[in-house]
Amino acid sequence: MAGLPYIVGNWKMNGTRAMLNEARAIDRSAQRFPKVQVGLAPPSTLIFRMRDAVELIGVGGQDCHAKENGAYTGDVSAPMLKDAGADFTIVGHSERREYHGESDADVNAKAQAALSAGLAVILCVGETEAQRDAGDAEGVVTAQLEGSCPIADGAPEKLSVAYEPVWAIGTGRVPSVADVAAMHKAIRAKLVAIYGDAGAEVRILYGGSVKADNAAELLAVPDVGGALVGGASLTAESFLAIVGAAA
Ligand code: PEP
Question: Cβ(169) to ligand 1 under 6 A?
Answer without folding.
Answer: yes
